[in-house]
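Model it.
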Amino acid sequence: MVKKFSGRKQSSKAKKERKPRKRGDAGSVSPNEAAKMLAVTGEAVKQWIYKGDLKATKLENGYWRIQHEDLAQYLNMRQNVTKFIHAAVGDAGVAGRVASVAEALGCRAEPVGDVSAALAKFRESAPVLVVVDLQSYPQAWNLIRRVRGTSRFGSPKILLLASEQLSEIDGRQAARFGLQGCLFHPVAEDVLTTEVKRLIS
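Modeled.
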């Protein structure tokens, strides 16, 4: 008796059960999920992975997964990392006082350039406070508008440094963007220390 076959004969390899495509499991998270836990952007988390600061596994599909225990270890490490204060200040003397105050409070002051450079820096290290000098930083309101209008930067507090009195327009802008603090020049270092300490605590 002759056996009839329909279709091609399957090879022994084809008969073997195909391995399921590796996906995330309950014991791991994606960079975007980790970013939400750390209150930073997904791009920042990927940079930490690329630098080797955060341990992660790259799957066959090209996506990254981070084990919960590795993330917990990184979270514990970050608790001891200094907080970032970004300073949009054009005056060297004022910038120096901001840096001195930040260091005294266990923080790290990061000077920012134009708005594009500032936003790029925000993605790398999410600041807890942004100090903006209305007098020496020409793009002050543009920067504040961009920070407030972009949810992925989180909700950093903003301290405005201004001349002796805000104009009516500047006052409306400050109210519109909900700034948390305002100091007037000349700003004494002890006054600046008290205000920064209040805002980052």
